[in-house]
Specification:
The chain is mainly α. The protein has one domain. It is built from 7 helices and no strands. Helix 1 packs across helix 3, helix 3 packs antiparallel against helix 4 and helix 5 runs antiparallel to helix 6. The radius of gyration is 17 Å and the shape is globular. The relative contact order is 0.11. The mean pLDDT is 86.
Length: 126
């Protein structure tokens, strides 16, 4: 939960257009080409300001990845309270949380996962 909050805080802090994001794309620096994650920091900053149009321009996958993190934050907070009050159906909730999280992760990060497999395959073949 703390990591997700830090991601949102980082995005909010660097949402000012005059500030440059201090973390460059390592992949782009090494290869000279873009990856599906290029522009995510700027896109998250735009999304914190509810600028969906700019976010999609920075990275077409940003909205789905951002929503995954929002979903995770809500579920972590909900889990905290359910465990605190020792709800009887907590085990069912945790199983559902795990299944939904895996499904949401695979949907949100699909382009990045496929890109990684393609990159790995090209590395092995060459």
């Amino acid at each position: 939960m703390i990591i997700i909050l830090l991601i949102f805080l980082y995005s909010a802090f660097y949402s000012n257009k005059q500030l440059q994001h201090p973390i460059p794309s390592f992949f782009t620096q090494i290869t000279g080409s873009d990856s599906p994650s290029t522009g995510l920091s700027r896109a998250f900053s735009a999304l914190v300001l509810f600028d969906i149009k700019s976010a999609k321009e920075f990275n077409p996958f940003a909205v789905q990845i951002f929503l995954f993190f929002v979903f995770q934050l809500v579920f972590r907070i909900l889990t905290f309270f359910l465990m605190k009050y020792n709800i009887s159906w907590i085990n069912t909730y945790i199983l559902a949380d795990i299944c939904l999280s895996i499904f949401a992760f695979s949907l949100a990060f699909r382009p990045l996962i496929l890109f990684s497999f393609k990159l790995f395959r090209n590395f092995i073949v060459n």
